[in-house]
Amino acid sequence: MNSQRQSAVYRSRILQPAAERRPETHPLTWRLRDDGQVVNLQDYQSREGYLAVQQVLNEHDPRAVIATMKQARVRGRGGAGFSAGLKWSLTLQGGDMPRGYIVCNADEMEPGTFKDRLLMEQQPHLLIEGMILAAFANNARYGYIFLRGEYVESARVLAEALVEAREAGWLGRDIAGSGFDFDMAVHTGAGRYICGEETALLNSLEGKRANPRAKPPFPGQSGAWGKPTVVNNVETLCNVPAVMLRGADWYQGLSGGRTEDGGTKLYGASGLVNRPGLWELPIGITGQEILDRAGGLRDGRALKAWLPGGASTGFLLPKHLDLPLDFDTVGKEGSRLGTGLITVVTEDQSMVSLMRNLEEFFARESCGWCTPCRDGLPWTVKLLLALERGEGQAGDVELLDKLAADCGPGLTFCAHAPGAAMPLQTALRHFRHEFEQGVHYPKGKAHADPIPVGEV
């Protein structure tokens, strides 16, 4: 599919007409055009564009910006859900500190996720404005949009928007007459999932192999080229202009009391649904409401399970559809909100085959730095292939349990292996019988004695 055709497909994925989107309720998408064309600089400026930059750079100090972000409870929209204001407050600042960098993590490699692409391809100036404000708050002199290399259309649109912003004086020296200097560039990656981990991203940005770094030091103290660096997701940064323009209390009120988190979220649905796409909704909306907006499942299929936010989140069941989709609530159910784009699994889909497909992806994308990830994930794939073919051996399902546990949080160098383990652990918990059906027993035996894990 060529980039022009591919872009047209994704431009149709925002399934809310302009009449339903207002600046007071849809800070991320109210400017989007129904025809899917790019919101250029003129259009953006006519709709409050760069007004927050003008006000903040001339009327506030960086500490006030950070305080507002904290009060608004803007949590990272890339998957981790860490407080953006708190992250900014931990960045080394001060008159004697070197000016650092703002890096936008646009390496959108999570399977089932395409929300950042929408923002970059249709209203790039919202991201640019958010990065200027983040740079001001964090004493940064330069910014990079680290973009997934396959997003060719995003790269083109962003590059043109940067030229527009620079010519209009929104980038470069003395922005809006404030005395603040800042510029930025697009950096396209080589297509590695591991670059979604912020320190691996920074290594790749510096021209090194994309392996995660040891922490501490954290990027806020020593990031790109040893300078203080803040790494935020596209959607996170796109929230900043509206927060600074309308205030923390307004942003908090957008959730309508559904959750303690503030703001809206780009939610979406993919898989065997009638209307896959994206919606900007109050954070804390339920999975059922998203599924209803997606028109339900195709051909009257029944729902077996669903991933709440990408392939690295844990499976939830139909009974969980009425839970608020916020970071803390989903976490208590043994999963993660992740990117907030749900993927449905229907009753006629094999959980073993689905997991084999996912684990092949995670095994391929491992950087190979640590043993549980480098060796454990390919071993997991080997076991799942055998079970999928009905050639599994006694003890294979128990061994999958152990391999997933060995990849858990705190046991590997970064979060890649725990992300691969979470869907497997939850699939084994909820659908163990499907995995056990793939074990081949000797003729005449209903079962075989499992091999003790410690003796394998």
UniProtKB/TrEMBL annotation:
It comes from the Bacteria. Residues 352-397 form the NADH-ubiquinone oxidoreductase 51kDa subunit iron-sulphur binding domain. InterPro entries: NADH-UbQ_OxRdtase_51kDa_CS, NADH-UbQ_OxRdtase_suF, Nuo51_FMN-bd, Nuo51_FMN-bd_sf, Nuop51_4Fe4S-bd, Nuop51_4Fe4S-bd_sf. It catalyses: a quinone + NADH + 5 H(+)(in) = a quinol + NAD(+) + 4 H(+)(out). Pfam families: Complex1_51K, NADH_4Fe-4S. The keyword NAD applies. Its cofactor is [4Fe-4S] cluster; FMN. Its EC number is 7.1.1.-. SUPFAM superfamilies: Nqo1 FMN-binding domain-like (SSF142019), Nqo1 middle domain-like (SSF142984), Nqo1C-terminal domain-like (SSF140490). Gene3D superfamilies: 3.10.20.600, NADH-ubiquinone oxidoreductase 51kDa subunit (3.40.50.11540), NADH-ubiquinone oxidoreductase 51kDa subunit, iron-sulphur binding domain (1.20.1440.230). Keywords: 4Fe-4S, Flavoprotein, FMN, Iron, Iron-sulfur, Metal-binding, NAD, Oxidoreductase, Quinone, Translocase. SMART domains: NADH_4Fe-4S (SM00928). NDH-1 shuttles electrons from NADH, via FMN and iron-sulfur (Fe-S) centers, to quinones in the respiratory chain. NCBIfam families: nuoF_fam (TIGR01959), PRK13596.1 (NF010120). Belongs to the complex I 51 kDa subunit family. This is NADH-quinone oxidoreductase subunit F.
